[in-house]
Amino acid sequence: xxxxxxxxxxxxxxxxxxxxxxxxxxxxxxxxxxxxxxxxxxxxxxxxxxxxxxxxxxxxxxxxxxxxxxxxxxxxxxxxxxxxxxxxxxxxxxxxxxxxxxxxxxxxxxxxxxxxxxxxxxxxxxxxxxxxxxxxxxxxxxxxxxxxxxxxxxxxxxxxxxxxxxxxxxxxxxxxxxxxxxxxxxxxxxxxxxxxxxxxxxxxxxxxxxxxxxxxxxxxxxxxxxxxxxxxxxxxxxxxxxxxxxxxxxxxxxxxxxxxxxxxxxxxxxxxxxxxxxxxxxxxxxxxxxxxxxxxxx
Length: 298
Prior knowledge:
Strand content: 25-35%
Number of strands: 13
Helix content: 25-40%
Largest sheet: 6 strands, mixed
Radius of gyration: 21 Å
């Protein structure tokens, strides 16, 4: 079962988030018919987004992670909520590259390295928080760890992994470790030494039956106390009503042009590929409704 654990390390000297996300990433693979390389890239980003989303406080909060690196996969966009629900897509889900010399999927080559990570947090305030940093490697984990360290001033070690075999996701997960204020130098050194071990997180996630087992394998040398557990899942919250609002936001002139030229509209959701059909009559009724509510611009 997929799970995200909030863990206190060494009696509160540091904290960790440990995620098993195999089912979540497999659901994304099926939804978008992802190639193995695209599955690894989007799966890592979905896992990281779900972990960051789990740290949000308000029930209505949300977080959007966008990665654009100039590579053939195009943009990767993921949206997460604190309840563990996450959705995401990449521009080119069929992009696939030869494996790297070490046999691993070439996520960095697909994503590219000339670009940025952008994180937008909607916390219910007047303006959302927007943070942005350059890409480090295009391998996702290093890039998001650098964002957390540079933009949010939170030193972070992040490992993400997706293992695909026989066209299916057989293991996916992530481990995020952050020292807390006052963390002793000795513990800091031990945390930093984790990096080579955590590079095997996809294999550990495959072998682990649950997040507790993954935490034990990844953080065996640290005392651990699980503070909270959440169940992440891949799901889209799109609806016909949301699509209608998006159409109205285009403005009356563009909508009437659509009616005249196409006699209707077909809109698909990037996150789940669901298609919404609108007839000419639907669009005319929508315009009338928007006018009645005073919400349609020219």
